[in-house]
Design goal:
mainly alpha, 183 residues
């Protein structure tokens, strides 16, 4: 199994492949590592550049099957990073709610171009890596009504056995099997 992963990574050119959630975590971590110092040193350029670098790293390291998950997440991640950075840096400065609300609005206004640029960079890297195939796969699964097909087949719960009627005790398993075999 380990050899197969190594060969797959060699074919794609990446030493590390992340799931979609892993790519979102990389994006979040890079954004937060830029947003906190940017807030402390009043340098919104730092927050934006770190977010754009995180978008590029996440797009390059995420496996092609999960690129759709990553492609739709930058706005939500950017908002979460900005909100968390404002909460952390506003603690102890008078009204927390007022400081966070004004800080989030000011930060979003100052770094919005970086959000768009990072999202476009992520899409520009993801398209040649297989994003259109992931979209086609999702569209086919939605059209065929088989969106959750793999999850249903992996469910170990058996629903064929009817529940025991109320008021009567269910027969032990061995006795039920004997009665089924006799009939």
């Amino acid at each position: 199994m380990r050899g197969q992963r190594g060969r797959a990574a060699a074919r794609t050119g990446a030493a590390i492949t992340l799931t979609g959630r892993g790519g979102v975590v990389v994006l979040f971590a890079a954004g937060l590592l830029g947003a906190l110092p940017a807030r402390w040193f009043d340098a919104p350029l730092l927050a934006g550049a770190a977010f754009a670098i995180g978008c590029a790293l996440a797009a390059l390291a995420t496996r092609p099957a999960d690129l759709l998950t990553l492609a739709v997440s930058p706005p939500a991640v950017f908002l979460a990073v900005t909100l968390l950075a404002e909460i952390v840096t506003s603690i102890g400065e008078g009204s927390l709610l007022q400081g966070v609300a004004l800080g989030v609005l000011a930060s979003l206004a100052a770094t919005a171009p970086w959000l768009f640029g990072g999202t476009l960079l992520l899409l520009a890297i993801s398209v040649p890596r297989g994003l259109p195939a992931a979209v086609r796969d999702l569209r086919g699964r939605l059209a065929g009504g088989r969106l959750f097909e793999t999850e249903e087949n992996e469910n170990p719960v058996r629903w064929e056995e009817p529940p025991a009627p109320r008021g009567r005790r269910a027969a032990p398993r061995q006795e039920r099997e004997r009665t089924e075999d006799a009939s």
